[in-house]
Amino acid sequence: MSTGLVDREIAFLDALRKAGLTVSLAEVIDSTRALGAIDLLDREALRHAYAACVLKRPAHRTTFDTLFDLWFPPVIGDQTLTDGDPLADLEEGDGPADPEAYRDMLRQLLLDGDEEMMKRFARQVVQGLGRADTAPGRQSWFSYRVLRQLSPETLMASLLEAMLQGQERGGLAEKVARQTVQERIKQFQELVEAEVRRRLAEDRGAEQISKTAVQPLAEQVDFLRASRNDMAELRRQVFPLARRLATRLTARRRLGKTGKLDFRRTVRASLATGGVPLVTHHKPHKPHKPELVVLCDVSGSVAGFAHFTLLLAYALREQFTKVRAFAFIDTCDEVTRFFTPGGDVADALGHMNAEAKLIWFDGHSDYGHSIEKFAEEYPDAVGPRTSLLILGDARNNYRATGAQTLKRLVARARHAYWLNPEPSAYWGSGDSATQAYGELIEMVEVRNAVQLEEFVQRLLPA
What we know:
Layout: H1 3-18, H2 25-35, H3 43-54, H4 61-71, H5 99-112, H6 115-129, E1 131-135, E2 138-141, H7 143-150, H8 156-164, H9 172-204, H10 206-213, H11 228-254, H12 263-270, E3 291-297, H13 303-315, E4 322-328, E5 332-334, H14 345-355, H15 367-377, E6 386-391, H16 403-412, E7 415-420, H17 434-438, E8 442-445, H18 449-459
Parallel strand pairs: 3-4, 3-6, 6-7, 7-8
Antiparallel strand pairs: 1-2, 4-5
């Protein structure tokens, strides 16, 4: 195996680590050994070999493929066209490329669905339309220049007409055709973006482009900055995350320390050794399964964080004796009834937002009134077996904190934690009441799903 290939492999695996994927030394060794079992000229076999060695979660596949394409590109430089190649007709010699000719070719490719030809066309169209001067004597590549000039979405009407060929509009056939066209257009856009990244990597180096080529993994995105798509991906990860946590916690319980000394069995066993207790016997270890009470701020600024954490708590409900959930904005209401086993997640959140009594005065966060209302309306919610979780950024709009009530709740609970999705550097600034609450309850920074997973493992010790 050449030194250059090994160096490229090491750089690629290091880029995966920097992107957030866990790649151990053993997996690096496995990847190197796998190269000896495949045809190195088969690029897809190389991709699958690396994926089999280092990928652990399906959600990481997009990041993996993007980085693989940077370090192991399908081609280098401009593609060579021969006489008779359909793409050769698009070339205009030394003159500027003709966007209309490209649009006509794109329309035909979207109708045919030829993936290999689509890849070659994407390379050619970026070569013809994607280059721009960014400074005197310096050029760069841009996907938006290509997509703006071709505007593939504007071809939808003519593509539907060609695919339906006189069939009735508005029926199932049109829905299928529309979905097919949308998927092919999306595929073309992704191919253009991939080709632009390849060109930039050739000019500036794969390491530099990799820093901006991949989006943060869903579990690394801050809850307060997550887009709608990020939160949708996080919700899809709730139950796989819960299964992983439950498996680890169950294993830790099995391997936990033994229980109290069983004096009677120990004495009996010592009779065989002349009364000397060489072997001690212990009672079975019965791990504590706590009750869980979640009190969460669902105001607009932290709603995504609260929703995700509620879903995770209910996905882990088998690890608790009882789970009760309470939500608040400026007053508090129990929302346990909305999260039934086997129920639809989206419906549960929708019913909670529409039916729960969470607004008392003006709809702005009021932690003090909500905490006092919780203690008054649900005096039996927190007891000596309860783990109390409060979720929110503690931004109280300069209102009363209800600190004395919170102090009584914390003293009554077995454990009490405050999970704050804001970076700790912002705590105490502006209308944040974290300083007042932090003196009464342990406040934990939980900005993303990774930190939340670490906290849940801590919440349920062996």
